[in-house]
Design brief:
Number of helices: 11
Radius of gyration: 19 Å
Number of strands: 0
Keywords: DNA-binding, Transcription, Transcription regulation
Distance between the termini: 32 Å
CATH topology of the largest domain: Tetracycline Repressor, domain 2
Strand content: under 5%
Order of helices and strands: HHHHHHHHHHH
Domain HTH tetR-type: 18-78
Helix content: 55-70%
CATH class of the largest domain: Mainly Alpha
Structural class: mainly alpha
Protein name: TetR family transcriptional regulator
Pfam families: TetR_C_24, TetR_N
CATH architecture of the largest domain: Orthogonal Bundle
Organism: Sediminicoccus rosea
Length: 209
Amino acid sequence: MTPTRVITAQVSDTGLVNERRAHIAQAAARVFRRKGFHNATIRDIAVEAGLSQGSLYNYVRTKDDILYLVHQDMTAAYARDVERALEDVTEPRARLHAAIAAFIHSMRERRADIALIYQETHALGEESRRAVLAQTQAFIQRFAQLIEEARAAGMALPGAGPLAADIVTFLPVMLSLRAWRLRDIMPGDAAEAELVGFLMRGLGIQDGV
């Protein structure tokens, strides 16, 4: 199980806590994008979430708690995108292709959120940072598993070396961090297709999967 941070809540209803924390994380992300983490206040986040500060403190205690929840929410979102794409795909090479395409699409669709977490990760406390890195490691390992399943199925993947899963899960981030440049080069859908093809060829799988 991927390590997570335990954030104490003053409310005993687990379902309500999860629902409110997701709502707070989404509101906080909007505030952080507008003002930056350091300039944002707990009050700003409470107002954006439609809560009083007192009510907000029932679910989180610090800005670090909130930033951690933002990271957790976004990481879970793109991991869900990948798993959803795999639901009806059984052939290992096709599964790897579907996962890569879904992750790339998620990076473009969620580009504002991804840029935010890359900009603000340094602001996390040590415990939160360790938990976030553990979640990232688990996501990388998911792609390592998909690559190994494709290899075990008898498909030659000459490009799938020790860093393959890291490359596959890092290169798509350029669609978020370089959006300012890429929008002047080619349409988003074309950029996605270009990147999918590039990664698949790098792994040794030709187009047309």
